[in-house]
Design goal:
Length: 158
């Protein structure tokens, strides 16, 4: 999955096809017409209220796709001045940015393994601490080697 661009309508349509839910049930749940549902499938963005409904109906967290995008491509909090953060009381809940899912780790390690990006480029581009990246490489190295041995050189999961 390329987290840089998120074709949300297409992804929802794919999940609907895999789930086998009938269009009439979807229309009833979403309180929309068939044309509106088909329009959502073609859309590159969806209102959050509708995305929440899709997430509930299909039992899939579509918001996580956007969270992964933020983890990879949003500027880190470190860029903000320390004084601004200490003097300002946050109005919204604060979340840690450095929580990486296995999908994100696999995505980054695949880029290194394929030669698409160097370790240094990954560290600079995604603002991942060097020690974190090397821990991932060490931790998942045996899995990479096992896949290569079992499936062949070009069949590695990472």
């Amino acid at each position: 999955m390329n987290f840089k661009e998120i074709p949300i309508g297409t992804l929802i349509e794919k999940e609907v096809a895999e789930s086998g839910i009938e269009l009439s049930r979807i229309c009833s749940f979403m309180k929309c017409t068939e044309q509106e549902i088909k329009g959502m499938y073609k859309s590159s963005s969806i209102e959050t209220e509708n995305l929440l409904k899709w997430s509930k109906l299909l039992e899939y967290d579509f918001f996580r796709l956007y969270s992964q995008h933020l983890i990879l491509y949003a500027p880190s909090i470190a860029g903000k001045s320390i004084e601004n953060r200490q003097n300002k009381k946050p109005g919204l809940p604060q979340f840690r940015k450095n929580i990486y899912t296995r999908e994100i780790i696999d995505f980054i390690l695949r880029q290194i393994e394929s030669g698409e990006m160097s370790k240094v480029a990954v560290i600079e581009y995604y603002k991942i601490p060097k020690t974190t990246l090397y821990k991932w490489i060490y931790k998942y190295k045996s899995e990479i080697n096992l896949n290569k041995t079992f499936y062949g050189k070009n069949s590695s999961r990472l």
